[in-house]
Write a structure and sequence with these properties.
By secondary structure, this protein is of the alpha+beta class. Among the domains are: 6-77; 124-247, Immunoglobulin-like (Sandwich). The protein contains three helices and eleven strands; from the N terminus they run αααβββββββββββ. It has a five-stranded mixed sheet, with no helix packed on it. Mean pLDDT is 79; it is low at 268-305.
């Protein structure tokens, strides 16, 4: 049994109404032209009325086509949760060949390490930032990621691509999801050639089903050329990965020199001290008189007879 998703159904309905509008306009013009050639008033009048009615219907079908194309899909998703398409991984059947046993065993000197692992894992330092306490549902699913520079109001990618040429600017990775639970931790990890360059992790508040996106807008010089991978995790469980390529060298940022103020030296008057001569007093010589003692002879007493 053929299964058509909601987006294809809306697109088909818009094409049908658009084609009906064009056919109705052609019929209306045909009736109006042929009515002029009818000589009988009653028949001519009926033909003209029929033509004008068809023209009015065509005018109404044109805005109806526009409304169906732009507003019907978001309205339907309010009542029906989208079921994302799960991409099946094709299995490769290897045809056995006859292996010859070499007589000399060569020891390889270079070991090729694959840059992309089969099952991505959550880095421990990012897992340490988790804040959610709700256990993720194992039934949560995500659709393949589509990359574009812009998205519309319905979170749909505008001109999606898998290769972007510098300058890249703001890039979105959009997806649909189902069976999600509010309050669980979800994360988006951006890798360039196997090296983590950006990530975001937060508590999920987007409901059980719908559309979502992860985005990155680094400085222009950080969009280096290479193979980029975006990994989506719910809790620590990997759900889906998407790949795109950046080509060309990123623009070199222009560095604007910051003017610095130079202090203008001011002239400082230097005062030279004047040495005042001091009067030196010469010492006063005081003459000293030295007295030389004179020996005085004392006469002896005389005896009286």
């Amino acid at each position: 049994m053929l299964k058509i998703d909601i987006h294809s159904t809306v697109l088909t309905a818009a094409i049908i109404t658009g084609v009906a509008a064009v056919i109705t306009i052609l019929l209306a013009i045909n009736h109006l032209i042929k009515s002029r050639k009818i000589p009988f008033y009653k028949k001519r009048h009926d033909r003209m009325v029929r033509g004008w009615r068809l023209l009015i219907i065509a005018i109404l079908l044109i805005p109806l086509t526009w409304v169906i194309l732009n507003f019907s899909e978001p309205i339907v998703y309010n009542f029906i949760s989208p079921s994302p398409t799960i991409t099946q991984t094709a299995t490769i059947t290897i045809t056995p060949t006859i292996t010859l046993t070499p007589t000399i065993t060569l020891t390889p000197t270079i070991t090729n390490t694959p840059s992309i692992t089969s099952t991505p894992s959550m880095p421990d330092d990012i897992e340490d930032e988790f804040e959610a306490e709700v256990t993720p549902s194992p039934d949560a699913v995500f659709s393949p990621i589509q990359f574009s520079r812009r998205i519309d109001d319905g979170l749909q990618p505008i001109e999606p691509a898998i290769e972007f040429e510098n300058p890249v600017g703001h890039l979105f990775g959009t997806f649909s999801y189902n069976n999600m639970t509010n309050g669980v931790q979800w994360s988006a990890l951006w890798y360039r050639d196997g090296e983590l360059v950006f990530y975001e992790t937060a508590v999920w508040e987007g409901g059980s089903g719908g559309y979502g996106y992860t985005d990155w807008e680094p400085p222009s010089d950080q969009w280096l050329p290479g193979l980029y991978e975006v990994q989506i995790f719910v809790g620590a469980e990997w759900k889906v990965s998407g790949f795109f390529t950046v080509t060309g060298q990123p623009p070199i940022p222009t560095i604007t020199p910051t003017p610095t103020q130079t202090a203008t030296p001011s002239k400082t008057a230097t005062k030279t001290p004047t040495i005042t001569p001091s009067q030196t007093q010469w010492p006063t010589l005081t003459p000293s008189i030295t007295l030389t003692p004179t020996i005085t002879r004392t006469p002896r007493p005389t005896e009286n007879n």
